[in-house]
Amino acid sequence: MIRSAICGIGMALPKRVVKNADLEEIVDTSDEWIHQRTGIRQRYIAGEGETTVTLGTQAAQAALEDARLGIQDIDMIILATSTPDHTFPASATEIQRALGMAHGFAFDIQAVCSGFIFAMTTADLYIRCKTARRALVIGSETFSRLLDWKDRTTCVLFGDGAGAVILEAREGKGDSQDYGILASILRSDGRHIEKLYVDGGPSTTQTTGHLCMEGREVFKYAVGMISDVVDACLEIVGITAPNIDWFIPHQANRRIIESLTHRLGISDDKVVITVDKHGNTSAASVPLALAVADKDGRLRKGDLIMLQAMGGGFAWGSIILRL
User: What are phi and psi of 262, to 5 degrees?
Assistant: First the structure.
């Protein structure tokens, strides 16, 4: 049985760090107010010359270096983003050009904060059906460019950044001891669009628009919806939550993460949390957290890892993989 295994991990962050105290000069807020409600202490904000494509390219280069591979070894690129550099072409093709790749194919996926989970699942399908042997999967966002910096309920929550992984085909036996992606579940429910969306677009307002969110409503639905896909993944693999070595959730709000892990029965020492340093980086959130845990030595070969995310749409999903 073919599995899609991670062989390289990379990340990239903008140069500018914006702490909660810096936002006190822009909107009516405070470090205490932000941290108490979200767990966020700071975030990175893209500056001049830093875009979704440049950050995604840097993360991709770091992943290639980690895997000790060249761009000639990659068959496809999938970029998860809600903030492309241009309406078209796909920003993935711009990253493809920046990396010097003139073969294979590249495209974007848009599933907001769940984008990286959707992109990983899509790449897994291409690999398992033998259309590609290696896939570069990137989550890259510049959400700061969608924010209304006068709205304190949203502008304090988000940041910019990128994370990337390289998936490659590996032979497995078809059981939970295999390396690579063991299970993935995706869900969406368009009835909740108005709870988290951007009020602009090429076909409606001909503008980019600003992010709009009903925070309490998102919180209310998040834990139950996420638990559903996590439980489904666990059932497919035939394990229980305590068997997981690392839980790497979408980094939107520390209170949501804590509520979810307690509901699932996952101990705090198995949870990777980076929301305090990065804020909510949407589709870059999960790969950034994965890269941080890999870089600081927490992750070991053979670890069983659960990835999870939920975002606008609502769209949500979960993946279980063995590193």
Answer: -65, -40
Tens digits of residue pLDDT in 167-210:
999 999 999 999 999 999 999 999 999 999 999 999 999 999 99
Nearest Cα neighbor of 46 from 21, 16, 18 is 16
| b (16+ CB within 10 A) / e for 242-269 | eebebbbbbbbbbbbbebbbeebebeee
Sign of CA dihedral 251, 254, 259, 264: positive
Report CA torsion sign: 193, 194, 196, 199.
positive
How far, in Å, CA of 147 to CA of 145, rounded? 6
Strands (E), 93-218: 105-109, 134-142, 160-171, 180-188, 196-198, 211-213
What is the spatial distance between Cα 17 and Cα 205, in angstroms, rounded to a whole number? 32
CA–CA gap between residue 192 and residue 112 (Å, rounded): 13
H or E, element range at 234? helix 215-237
| Residues contacting 103, CB < 8 A, separation 6+ | 72, 75
ω into 88 cis (within 30 of 0): no
Residue 218: CB atoms within 10 Å: 19
Give me 263's structure tokens.
């509901």
Nearest of 55, 46, 159, 60 to residue 113 by alpha carbon: 159
Per DSSP, what are the bridge partners of residue 166? 8, 136
Residues that are catalytic: 113, 250, 280
> What pTM, to 2 d.p., does this model score?
0.98
